[in-house]
Amino acid sequence: MTSKFYVTTPIYYVNDKPHIGHAYCTILADVAVRAHRLLGDQTYFLTGTDEHGQKVQEAAQKRGIEPQQHCDELHLAFKDLWPQLLCGTNQFIRTTEPRHRAVVQRALQQLHDRGLVVPREFEGWYCVPDERFWTEKELSDGKCPACGRQVVRLKEKNWFFLMSQFAEPLRAAITSGRIAIAPASRANEVLGFLDKPLQDLCISRPKSRLQWGIELPFDRDFVTYVWFDALLNYATAIGFLDAEPPTDAAQWPQPSASGTANFDQWWPAVTHFLGKDILTTHTVYWPTMLMGLAQAFDKPHDAWLPRQFVVTGWWLLDNAKMSKSIGNVVNPLDMRAKYGPEVLRWFVVREMVVGQDANFSEEALVRRNNVELANDFGNLLQRITALVDKYFGGQVPTPPSGAPTTDAQRAVRELVAMLLRPDAASDDGQWAGDRVAPVAVSVRAFRLHRLAADAMTLVSRLNVLVQHDAPFRTARDDLPAAAQSLYCALEGLRIAATLLQPILPMACAEVLRRIGADQQARPLSELSWGQLPGGAQLANGPPLFAKYDVPISVAAEVAPVVVAVDKPAPLRPVQSPVDTLIEAARVPVVIDQFAAIDLRIGHVVSAAPVPKSTKLLCLSIDLSEAQPRQILSGIAESFAPADLIGQQVLVLANLAPRKMMGLISHGMVLVSEDAQGRRVLVQPAHPVPNGGTVR
Ligand code: MSP
Question: How far apart are CA 374 and CA 550, in angstroms?
């Protein structure tokens, strides 16, 4: 059964210059869209810009132009960016479009007419840059708790949406899983927020202070609070309250249908992608607004509840959130210009566990490109096609009829079978017990980093296959054996390219073209072993990915060692079927892969903070080698250095050395996390000799 999958990104502040944090959000949503298409879902993808509010008004004033002109110029920085990063959005919405204004006013009027928006005299602390009120208690040292800037005391009449009425239905919708929030830890955070009494929401701003907004239809002295206006974009875009189509009507899901017909087709099958800084506005304001609107339009209160939220972490630079106000931003177009869009897409998806923070480092990006894309993936294609050229005239060898004949072939076949097990979902879209294909689970649970990792495991096994089966040797006196190895390699590569296509759409289409497969990747449900036809003509071409010199940046700092591990189980019982399946989604490794990892016990001789780093400690660890090892570990937030000295720890000893904050780190200390998210050492049950191995 095909499902509908409507995806939105946050609409970006038009004043900002796009940086990696923005780019990540849209790239991740794009990967999700493409991956859902691979699962056979029908998709629709929206992005846009958020154009009202004080900051825009001020910026335009500074430039001496009208705010509308300012927005008309600036929104292009975002609109033009997405195609350059290969993000295939279907529609770009701007909150200053008349069709959106009409929807916001229609919604407000109805809420007002049904008594869900009411006037009140209100006094509070107001943060001008953040455009929001705070209570006395919320202030931190008398300043804005969000941005730390000065607040001013304001008393004024305003209009309030009776949000507090919907606190309990919202809680029920989250705890029952009716609204899914991934990762589950964020759902707990929202429930924690709902433990405190929910206030009503001030949804107006007096024109005396702000003119650049959508006028309240029932009180011309006010404009609409920018978040109330902005959140509605997700619904306007597909025809809510019979909205007009976009200027280019072809961008609408069904260009010939009315707003209402489009909306009914796609809502509430929506998945909102957002960063963790805008969690409350999205998971509290927005669903309660929709409950209020449903009530006001005589629908059941949960009729329009959005289905899912995917909450992402932050890209950090030198451990601070990348943001325009701090000025520590990396421009995605610079990365694109140097390395191309797919290297950037690969890095951000592969490096960041969805939902957690990660450090951006150009050095790490280049390393991932050189090792994973250029070497493991790109070279694999070159090696296989060269061998097929040389020994089989450039044609796919005849598919073998028998079972795999070598361990390496068996390892590839087993992994493919496991990744693609077809009984992924039952007809109603519910996950079927523990017999779920890891690829489908990763996609449906938005663990898109896992999709990348699983596909790369397959690529590694294909490299092992070429190495172990050595078709370049067997071809000399056992051509059928070489044919069998190379067919297996080509077929594995076809499947790896299909799985990687959501992340690397151009490169993977090229791989498929060169190995004589359909260039349009098949849906997962139709993907099976042996579809590559024998005799298909291979094509040659230049290497898929170039290699670059690694720019060593002393500022680059690795994320804590647990960064590649998903967060532990939720603290509260939130129904999230996919979370129970994480374990089922792990890809098994063969014994050779485990044997390649050198785990050793050592004891900590000294430990000290690393200057200018809040996360790193510099440890000296005795592994019974000629000298203790220097290892940097991202555990400073969980341990005082003195607590570590003398402790035995488990070390990944054959990790390639790397430089962080100007210091060489040679190895990795293994840790886990407790329920509060603090790092915990992994230690032997009783002391063992230093340097002892772990099996
Ligand atoms: N305009 C609001 C969203 C309104 S949606 C109805 C807004 N815009 S924003 O431009 O400031 O942020 C857009 C998205 O970019 C947010 O999800 C935010 O979390 C994300 N990022 C901004 N900086 C980021 C990083 N450094 N790292 C990752 N994403 C971050 O908020």
Answer: 13
